[in-house]
């Protein structure tokens, strides 16, 4: 794959542009340098006085009032603020008022006693009187306000002019700053600078002292308010203690005792609940076994009862005796009956004793439960008393804290009020003058050497910029590179600007340079173009050659005539056809009549021998245009024209056709189809690229074969594209041509400039 080619920058192209536009560069350079030089030598000198200040980071610790007058100077924003304060309008007005600068000629100059100054002053005075009359007529009530507005405008302009002369230059990596002022009078400049520094320091101190005074007033008001607040809070605390019969303060010991009581009651309740549950369990167990007396003996309390145990022992003994007596006696035996009766008595006693034990369990349960309820009641009461005590303690604490807070604030304000009152008369700040301004010895403006040097640089840069800008705006074709870049067709050669010779030929005008100056660069250029045309095609030499241009006055007629001459001089039988039937000129160049010519051949079918004119140049014949017809395009595009070309091919070796511009009319496009090749003439520095492209597109559209482009009217002067190419070989004759031109004081021109009325 082919890589895209990029255009290489050639330094010689830039040099050619500079040489080409040298007069524009010189003009801009001269205007800038001369203007600046006149200014620096006629301007009023300006002097600058400078005073150096030091801005400390913190204020001197005179009193412990840093919180009131503290300055946060740790950041750059503080210094930037101070620089703007120096340039503030308040400081400027203070200096103007102290030095009465509103009456100084430095700021309010007196009118000059010249004609123009007096005329300007009278015009301004008349305009002011007219304005005042109009205002008095239309707005009677607003006269005073208008006058005040004018005074404000004058003050505003004076202050603005003063501020514009202030120069604040901080010194890097330090707390120093240079404050300068520019003025025409060096003494006044030093005086204003010192006054400005002093006014700035005083205003800075006044600002701080105003803040202190404001703080004193504010503290005084707050002290009174805080005193009332302390009294109210103390009265509220006293009333609360009296209402709730509080004798002592609520301390941590009281809270501890209350907590211990609650904890002890909780412990007793837990123990009572345990005892109550145990008693309740025993009682309910005994109550459940009451219906089964035989099971009552399983109750632990019954088992532990000594009386019941004795009864049981006696019952055991009786059962043994009954067992022994039953073996001897029957059931109704008196001893058996007596023992049975005794056994029943013991059982009744046991039953009674068991009931008594159950009743004792019931009584014990009730006592334990009553004790539990009593403890719970006491706990509830204690809790309520604790809550009431806590609530009182909270309210009491709130009131007490309010009293303490009010007392502390009151005491703090009292101390701060005393400190602030002492600082009202303090005259200390963090800004001091390190070096006072001295009267400057030399002006700072204008800097003659620097300004002139800058003018030289800017003038040169502006001239070069203008030159390249004009070159950028120039969309004409100037050199062969433009032909290759924009037209993309073969380049046949250049034709230089033709300078008339001292001894021109008697029979031919100066434009016929091949005859008048056969050794000139122009003649050699035409011979080179002739050679390039003949060898432009590898298959055959073109016989019918049409010469045209994209627009008028580009030199196509002179080019076709000189080409015809060079081809005839090389031994070829050549005929030159003037097919420009709108503005013909070939007949004038060769000094022949155009009463008969192409028009007669194509319309009247005149004999060819009657229209072909011989010239004094061997092998060169000319057919002029003939009378100008009303319809040239129809005549040239007719069948008769094709037949004429075929006849001429048989009788002549070369046929040169001169045609009108291709973009103006269609004649050249019609003849291009009948030619073996077309030569396009382009005027250097005049032919527009788009017009040349349009002409090529029209020729390509009709199928014409393009042999190449002739660049006409190129400059051969020093610095031009062809200077070094032609100077050494043709230098002497070129020098003679230029010298002759200077003697006659004639203007260098190409062929078309000599006869501007033809194309």
From TrEMBL:
<feature type="region of interest" description="Disordered">
    <location>
        <begin position="739"/>
        <end position="759"/>
    </location>
</feature>
<feature type="domain" description="AAA">
    <location>
        <begin position="555"/>
        <end position="701"/>
    </location>
</feature>
<feature type="domain" description="Polysaccharide chain length determinant N-terminal">
    <location>
        <begin position="7"/>
        <end position="98"/>
    </location>
</feature>
<comment type="similarity">
    <text>Belongs to the CpsD/CapB family.</text>
</comment>
<dbReference type="GO" id="GO:0005886">
    <property type="term" value="C:plasma membrane"/>
</dbReference>
<keyword id="KW-0067">ATP-binding</keyword>
<feature type="transmembrane region" description="Helical">
    <location>
        <begin position="23"/>
        <end position="42"/>
    </location>
</feature>
<keyword id="KW-0812">Transmembrane</keyword>
<dbReference type="GO" id="GO:0042802">
    <property type="term" value="F:identical protein binding"/>
</dbReference>
<dbReference type="InterPro" id="IPR050445">
    <property type="entry name" value="Bact_polysacc_biosynth/exp"/>
</dbReference>
<keyword id="KW-1003">Cell membrane</keyword>
<protein>
    <recommendedName>
        <fullName>non-specific protein-tyrosine kinase</fullName>
        <ecNumber>2.7.10.2</ecNumber>
    </recommendedName>
</protein>
<dbReference type="Pfam" id="PF13614">
    <property type="entry name" value="AAA_31"/>
</dbReference>
<dbReference type="InterPro" id="IPR005702">
    <property type="entry name" value="Wzc-like_C"/>
</dbReference>
<dbReference type="GO" id="GO:0005524">
    <property type="term" value="F:ATP binding"/>
</dbReference>
<keyword id="KW-0808">Transferase</keyword>
<comment type="similarity">
    <text>Belongs to the etk/wzc family.</text>
</comment>
<keyword id="KW-0997">Cell inner membrane</keyword>
<dbReference type="InterPro" id="IPR025669">
    <property type="entry name" value="AAA_dom"/>
</dbReference>
<feature type="domain" description="Tyrosine-protein kinase G-rich">
    <location>
        <begin position="398"/>
        <end position="469"/>
    </location>
</feature>
<keyword id="KW-0472">Membrane</keyword>
<keyword id="KW-0829">Tyrosine-protein kinase</keyword>
<keyword id="KW-0418">Kinase</keyword>
<dbReference type="InterPro" id="IPR003856">
    <property type="entry name" value="LPS_length_determ_N"/>
</dbReference>
<dbReference type="Pfam" id="PF02706">
    <property type="entry name" value="Wzz"/>
</dbReference>
<keyword id="KW-0547">Nucleotide-binding</keyword>
<dbReference type="InterPro" id="IPR027417">
    <property type="entry name" value="P-loop_NTPase"/>
</dbReference>
<keyword id="KW-1133">Transmembrane helix</keyword>
<dbReference type="Pfam" id="PF13807">
    <property type="entry name" value="GNVR"/>
</dbReference>
<dbReference type="GO" id="GO:0004715">
    <property type="term" value="F:non-membrane spanning protein tyrosine kinase activity"/>
</dbReference>
<dbReference type="InterPro" id="IPR032807">
    <property type="entry name" value="GNVR"/>
</dbReference>
